[in-house]
Specification:
Layout: H1 2-30, H2 50-56, H3 61-70, E1 75-78, E2 81-83, E3 87-89, E4 92-95, E5 112-113, H4 114-136, E6 140-147, E7 170-178, E8 183-185, H5 186-189, H6 195-207, E9 213-215, E10 227-230, E11 241-242
Parallel strand pairs: 9-11
Antiparallel strand pairs: 1-4, 2-3, 4-5, 6-7, 7-8, 7-10, 9-10
The protein binds zinc ion.
Zinc ion binds near residues 165, 170 and 228.
Length: about 240
């Protein structure tokens, strides 16, 4: 009797392990974006681990630009830059207007760290455009920004921590211009209770799945006119902001 029970328990265990294996196999095949060890593919939808994989790209410039290229993003890879001890970047890109993205950069603009650029691409495709279609029935034609690289400390103070902008690891988004020319801006429409306000809420919340830090007018007065999006390294306590 005892032996039978032992065999039965063993059989159940084997069945459970096989079932777990099958589930994982199915997940890996149908939703690789939801598994921590699969390679990031910018063509896939946003999954459970997409944000972490994007942040990890900050240290893998070569692989990151390859991912952008594979996803059909047009960009110029910028030469490494160093300004003093605290500022500069090694793997930055500048989007070329007219590619698969509506975030345009002027030739004089400085670039983004590639990890920020990859997150911006996913944000536009999977968050911004669907939200615009849902709220306005049309696409966003241009995303306006206040730039990325800037050798400064947080809030431009003389002392204190250096900003993620100092390593091109952040971008400030100011407004969205729709196909019909209508302009939805963070400063003008954040408190709106209609479609523009809902649109801005949606794109802010959606950015939180893709960037390590997302700061909006809800965070403080310094962000009343833009969304600050960055890929700051997650600290030992995994600090993330999404407000
Ligand atoms: Zn910023």
């Amino acid at each position: 009797m005892r032996r039978m029970r032992k065999i039965l328990v063993r059989l159940i265990l084997i069945a459970l392990v096989a079932l777990a294996g099958l589930l994982l196999f199915g997940l890996a095949r149908d939703h690789p974006e939801d598994l921590p060890w699969t390679e990031l593919d910018l063509g896939q939808p946003i999954g459970t681990f997409t944000g972490r994989k994007l942040a990890a790209l900050a240290d893998e410039g070569g692989r990151c630009t390859e991912l952008l290229r594979r996803a059909g993003v047009r960009f110029t890879a910028l030469p490494a830059r160093r300004d003093g001890l605290q500022c500069g970047y090694t793997h930055a890109v500048r989007f070329i207007a007219g590619g698969s993205l509506s975030i345009g950069y002027q030739p004089a603009d400085l670039g983004n760290n590639c990890a920020v650029a990859a997150a911006l691409a996913l944000w536009e495709w999977h968050v911004v455009q669907p939200a615009a279609l849902a709220q306005f029935g049309q696409r966003v034609e241009r995303i306006e920004h206040f730039g990325s690289y800037s050798c400064r400390r947080i809030y431009g103070r003389d002392e204190g921590a250096w900003s993620e902008h100092a390593t091109a690891n952040a971008v400030d988004i100011a407004a969205f211009v729709l196909e019909d020319g209508r302009r939805i801006s963070v400063v003008g429409d954040w408190d709106d209770e209609g479609a523009p306000g809902r649109f801005l809420d949606e794109v802010r919340d959606g950015a939180c799945d893709l960037f390590a830090t997302v700061l909006s007018p809800d965070y403080n007065e310094a962000h009343r006119d833009h969304f600050h999006l960055d890929q700051a390294a997650r600290g030992a306590f995994g600090w993330r902001a999404c407000r």
